[in-house]
Amino acid sequence: MTRSLLARRVFARRTGLAWLLLLLLLSLLLLLLTTPVAQAQQNLFNIPAGDLTPQGKFFYQHQTNVYGPRDLESKNHLVYGLGRGWEAGLNVVNIKMDFRRRGDVFGVNRHDRGRPLKPLVQLTGQKFFALSPTLSTSLGTQVGTNPLRFGGARRRLTHFSYNTWVWSPRHHVKVVAGPYLSDRGTLGAGNRAGLLLGAEYPVSKKVLLMGDFISGRNATSVSVLGLNYLATQRLQLCLGALLPNPGSGNRAGVVFELNLLGYDADPAGDDH
Questions:
Q1: Record's superkingdom (predicted)?
Q2: CB 271 within 8 A of CB 50
Q3: Which one, 33, 95, 149, 243, has least CB within 10 Å?
């Protein structure tokens, strides 16, 4: 191994570590700056959970998908409650880190329109409608692009839009279902419409069984089944197994998730 090659590998590893530390510091900063009221979790692993962020409050989620010892993907979601059933936010997703690359840890999609854009920055918006004490629905969209022609990639506008229906007969028991519609910038090759499914069920006072599914044979078509540990009223730690849909070409992996609430989740179950 030449000295220059060794130097590039060391630089790549240090760069990846720096990004991970930066995300951790951002998470801790948000935890310190937020202030209390009452609610629950806004996302399952990969689909919206159908929970409204209270007016003037924040919700932050960091997710890392691990496909191997040196192959990671990072996703970040920040949501702000606007009131009257509205919330808005920012997503920074598809941050791929492949430490097997020589001097190119953060892979970008330059010209292949059959693959999702990466990295991808999106503005998000969602409107909620309460139909009964146990049934609600929401309409949402995530619209964005790959930022500033990063890495020489061609910049394209892309979206992911959805309608979810949530049945929640009691606190932390819910079933989520609804259609989605998107494009190749988000999904890559394959179907552009499909079905979102998810569920949450408590197995103890501090642990929830949680899973979700995105139908189809595109880059998002996976299932995740795992656990959500309610560490505090503001901190949730999740771990799940990522299973690709048959024929999608996606990879199996492990999902780690950190949820930070800018308010106290209500242990008694009075979310609203």
A1: Bacteria
A2: no
A3: 33
Please tell me whether residue 23 adopts helix, strand or coil conformation: helix
Q: State whether residue 151 is helix, strand or coil.
A: helix
Residue 249: burial class (beta carbons within 10 Å; 0-12, 13-18, 19+): middle
Hey, what's the torsion of the CAs at 16, 22, 26, 32, to 10 degrees?
130
Helix (H, G, I), strand (E, B) or coil at 241: strand
Tell me the three state secondary structure of residue 266: coil
Residue 209 CA: distances (Å) to CA of 3, 76, 228: 49, 22, 6
What distance in Å separates the CA atoms of residue 241 and residue 243, rounded to the nearest whole number?
Answer: 6
- Going by the DSSP 8-state scheme, the letter that residue 45 receives in this structure is S
Helix (H, G, I), strand (E, B) or coil at 154: coil
- Element containing residue 8 per DSSP (H, E): helix 3-33
36-84 pLDDT per residue, tens: 333 445 678 999 988 899 999 999 999 999 998 888 899 999 999 999 9
Relative to beta strand 173-182, strand 120-130 is unpaired
- β 193-202/120-130 pair status: unpaired
Paired sense of beta strands 222-230 and 193-202, if any: unpaired
d(CA 256, CA 228): 10
Strand-pair partners of 61: 77, 259
* Residues pairing with 93 in the sheet: 120
Is the torsion defined by CA of 201, 41, 252, 6 positive or negative?
Answer: negative
Q: What is the mean pLDDT of residues 150-159?
A: 72
